[in-house]
Structure formats: structure tokens, C-alpha cells
Amino acid sequence: MLKGYQGMVDGGDNIEEASWESVSSMLQVGGTVIGSARCKEFRSHEGRLKAAHNLVQRGITNLCVIGGDGSLTGANLFREEWSGLLKELVEKGLIEADAVERYAALHIVGMVGSIDNDFCGTDMTIGTDSALHRIIEVVDAIMTTAQSHQRTFVLEVMGRHCGYLALVSALACGADWVLIPEMPPEDGWEEKMCQKLSATRSRGTRLNIIIVAEGSLDRHGKPITSSFVKDLVVKHLGFDTRVTILGHVQRGGTPSAFDRILASRMGVEAVLALLETTADTPACVVSLCGNQSVRLPLMECVQMTQEVQKAMDQKRFEEAVKLRGRSFENNLRTYKLLAHRKPESELPVSNFNVAVLNVGAPAAGMNAAVRSAVRVGISEGHKMFAVNDGFEGFYKGQIKEVKWSDVGGWTGQGGSLLGTKRTLPAKHADKIAEQMRKYNINALLVIGGFEALESLLQLCEVRTTYEEFCIPMCMLPATISNNVPGTALSIGADTALNAIVETCDRIKQSASGTKRRVFIIETMGGYCGYLATVGGLAAGADAAYIYEEPFDIRDLQANVEHLTEKMKTSIQRGLVLRNENSNDNYTTDFIYQLYSEEGKGVFDCRKNVLGHMQQGGAPSPFDRNFGTKMSAKAMQWLSKKLLETYRRGRVFANSEDSCCLLGMLGRTLVFQPVVTLKDHTDFIHRIPKEQWWLKLRPLMKILAKYKTSYDVSDSGQIEHVIHTRPKESDASVAM
Questions:
Q1: What positions carry a catalytic annotation?
Q2: pLDDT tens, position by position, 369-419
Q3: What is the full DSSP assignment across 447-503?
Q4: How many CB atoms lie within 10 A of CB 401?
Q5: What is the pTM of this model?
Q6: Which residues contact 315 (CB under 8 A, 6 or more apart)?
Q7: How many angstroms separate the CA atoms of 420 and 447, rounded?
Q8: Are 595 and 605 in contact (CB under 8 A)?
């Protein structure tokens, strides 16, 4: 359906049958290829009558509507009027009487496409992550010039009625102040903001960033514009201040890896929902809760979305924030915790010392996690210590106390500013215990990959020998490979996926206008095929070879023949991904030579080993926020455990549940004792025994034109909005 509802009303060439070829090469294109338009005519009864006539003429009774609450409300109204519209068409002689029975029900499934993320019932809407990428790219660029010239920047982002983009980008860049419609600042905010900016500048910071949502208001309903904020700063502080209004830049560009995967998964769920729907099934919307697809009644979501605006209009701001959902509420709470430092006199005094360190290979988002841990720890009244170079630095005594301002500006930095090593602690347990005594370390936060898990298991084992390790310990999974058991997602994996997808897009583009070409790309990940599989799905790969799904020469031959057939008939470029350890014998060189030989006369081949570029670069908005929120939650858990295990003037914790990994499981963030994860782990290949993303592989094959079955065991049933959020754990992985 071209041009949205306008195309449905106009009919004719606007409604055409889609083929596999017609949607090829669409994945990396921003915006909407099939077009979208606001349609006044569809809002009228006559317009909907025309639309119904055009659908019946083509035998269409299933609609998948991608849009915001306005589009979805219109779709639901269309569905409710459907039988009446058909009777009217019969009366006017435009359709046969038997068509009413043949096309008796119109089935509708919605997918929410909106950069504002303003639709209740889903953690993330399609397009939001890409918009955040555009904002953060600009913020990162501005930071360079602002530091050079010692300036204050006021950034205005989209969000007339929803402050999600402003709030999350403020979290992702560590902004000094943020203004959003849902929570107008208290009276007298102008003076407080200027005091905050002045205090930050006096500590040696060379830049200040203020983020303003375009719909920001004060408590009396007066608009707060970016130019007003600029004039305020200049008048009260005399700081050199600039305004940047991002505007429609936020809507443009190529979709991020997260949005491509989200849209692909939601698309499958929408089709399954349409296939399973009956005349009695209410119109539903497919949404994301944690890492799971769910189906919710469309009008329940629309009504709750409208309730948010009503609460804001009636100045019930606390309620408006709650109605936005746990994800939004958690973002706001975390931002306040990290951005606004309490005076020393207001901080609780805990007398606990907490150490934080990175272990294993560097992953983007580690620095955001460290910053969050340090600031939340200080807010809880703890003394925070940073350990350089992992456990190697620990036993060498590379430990120092860190203050609030020491971690300023860390959120957007790639790699590991603390330094990280793969060294495990078992061989140096005595020296590490000595350092823990010296600095009186009462709790440990370890941020890292598989080595971090092994490290905590080793520390648990030596608790009987060294009482210094009988303290609360928590691990945050941070690895580009996403190979840690007990979690669906790891800090750093999203940044690596974006690096893979961007590179694959460029590589495919390099062949445009040339003869048919196939690219063989090698990804990292050790024995874990997450990057190859999910990267392949996001980049539109024809095949992805991984260790978890064994393959032989017959499979390779079948893939080559399949790709050859496609090349002859439809596509110009092919993409094949291979995980670095997928097979000892079928190496990247072997696969390259095989495809080159078998494709002679049809296509030629090129190979590319992506290597450590997957580990570098600035963290994606997702990883910055995932790291920040996970770390804040971990520190609050450690604080709780410290109070629970403090007896007779000392901390003593040796139970299994005092040494945990915080991971994303389905819809919830869960603290799991590391010893219980042993049975779920393949230690030889350093991967979990069960991995959720393997269920995405049939989808990748279907999109590559293979005939295969898709596992529908995870497809959702219609739930109610109020039941979609777990009560105890915040399920909002997505920012």
C-alpha cells in the first residue's frame, strides 16, 4: 500500500502486490520506501468508504498498520465500521451482495513506528533508536568544539508531547540539565540550573550541555524554548552559549542495527498475529517488553497514551511519568541520580568501601557503567575505589579512590578507561586478599565478559581460605561477543553490531553499478555466533556460518547454488557472514575460494575480515544507557546486601546469593548466583548451553529466500497493558 491511508483511499496503482524482489535492498534504507502521508479524507466517512471499496476489489481483509497512535486509532475505527461500510457499498451497487459474507471481517495488527517513543505498552517503538543515534552523533561532535572553546551548548530535540529522546540522550551524553514535557521543572529552576552549571565549570569542566525537548513547559504551562535557556545562561553567568536545533536530522539516516532487528522481529509477530486472528479477536498491537515480543489490545494502548497527555494537561506530572511506563520512569530516576550531586551534608554515611573493575576484553559501554557505579555509590554514601587493569592491577595495588567529578565525560568514551586484562584471580588470591585488607574493600562490582564470570566463580571457591572474599560481589556482563550465560544481552554487543552493519552496508554499496558480487565477511565472537547471526539478519545476509549450527560441505554447496540462482534472477550483491571459530577446516579463505570457484560466470567474490574495528568506536546510545542503568541497579543491590550482611562491625557474606550476575532474562533484569550458572555453561567453548537468538536464524534464512519453517512457540497471546510490566524488576533493556 503506497502513501499510507491516502493510497488506500485513492486506490489504483497505490495498491500493488509485493514480491520478494520488490522489497530487496530495502533493509538499509531510512524513512519509508512505500511512502506515508497524512490523509484528511480517511478521517471522513466517505474516505473510509472509498478505502473499503478499494480493499474489497482486491480481496484484502488483513491490514498491518505501521504508525503512531493516530494511525492506529484510525485503523481501529475502520475495523469497527467495516461491516457497515460493506453494506453501504452493496446498497450503492459498488460490490456484489455475496462480498459482504466473503469479506465479513477486517483483521488489523499494528506496529508502532515513531521516533518519539510516545506509545504506551512498548519499551521501544520502531525508529527511536535510530533517532537517538542521530542525536548522539551530533552531541559527540559538539563536545569536541565545546571543549576547545569552553562553551555551553543548548540542544533542542524533537518531542512535542514526549520527552523520551531528550531524557535518554541526556543520560547517554551526561548532560548537565534536561527539560521534558512530562516533568516540568519546579519554580525557581532557572537559579538552580545556573548554580549547577557554575559548579560544574568551577570544577574544571570546559563544557556544559543542556538538552531541551521542543514541547518543554514550566509548571504554569509557559513554553521553555532553547533560545530562552540560552539567554538565561548568558544573562546570569555570562557563559559563551550556542543553540543547536536538530530538527528533521533526527528522522533521517540509515536505520540502526537495533531498529532493523526490532522491525524484523515485530514484522514476523504481526504476520503470525494476523494468521491466528478471528472475527472475535480485538485489534492488537505488537510491542516489545524487555527482550520479548508481546501482543496488546490496540485500543488499551491508545487510551493509556491519551491518558498521559490528559495527566500532563491537568498538571498531574508524577502520574504522567508513571503512565509512560517503567522504562521512562527508570530513565528519569537514573538521570536525576547521576546528574545532580547532593551536598556532602545530605549524603548518607555508610562507611563501606566498594571497588569497581573491568575484566576481559574491552567493550563499548564499560565506561558508562563505571561512571554510573561511582556516582550511585557516592550517592549511597559509599567510598568508591577504581581498580586499573582488572585483577592484574588488583594484586599489584593499582587501586585509587574515585570522586564524583573523576568520571565526568566518561559516558561517551569507547574502550575501557580503567584498563582491562584477561588475568584471572585464582593464582593471585593471596595478594588480592592483602590489597582488600589494605583498602578495606567491603563489596566488589566486576564489569566484563566470560573472564569476569570465571573470576567470580574462582573468588567464591577461595572464600573458605580467604575471608576477605566473603563480601557481596556483582557482575555486569560486558562483552561484544554476548557469550555470557544468564543474560540475553551484554553491554558492548549493540555497538559491535552497529559496526558490523555499517561496514556491511558500505561493502555492499561498493559493488553498486558493477557486475554481480558476493562478499564473505568474518566477524568476531569466539565460538559464539551472536554477532554473525544478528549482524547477518540486520545487514540482510544470505548465509551466516556459526559454531552452534554445524555445517558441512553439502550445506556450503547448497548455499552456493541457492545464491547463484538468486544472482541470475534478481539480486546484484550477496553477503555471507562467518563467525571466526565456526569451523576449524571451513575457514574464511576456504569459503571465499569455494564461492569464487562455484560462482564463476555468475558472480565474483571478495572477502573482508572485520577484526578489532568491532571492538572500537564510541558506544551506541543503547550501550550507554544499558550500561548506565544496569550499573545503577547493581550498585543499589550491593548497598542492600552490605546492610543485610553487616554484623558486629564487619561485613560477612558467604552465601551463594551474595555473588550474583545481573542479566536480562526475557522481560526482566534478574540477579542470579554465579554458581547456579555453571550448569548452563559450556566452559570449553565459552558459551551458554542455550541461546535465545538461535531462534532468529530461520527468520534470516526466510528473508534470504530459503524455504524453511519458523518456530512459533514464542509467539505471544494477547495480554492486557497493565500486566505487561513485571512488578519487581525493570524489564526495560531498551533504553
A1: 116
A2: 999 999 999 999 999 999 999 999 999 999 999 999 899 889 999 999 999
A3: EESHHHHHHHHHHHHGGGT-GGG-S-EEEEEB-TT---TT-S--BTHHHHHHHHHHH
A4: 12
A5: 0.93
A6: 219
A7: 10
A8: yes
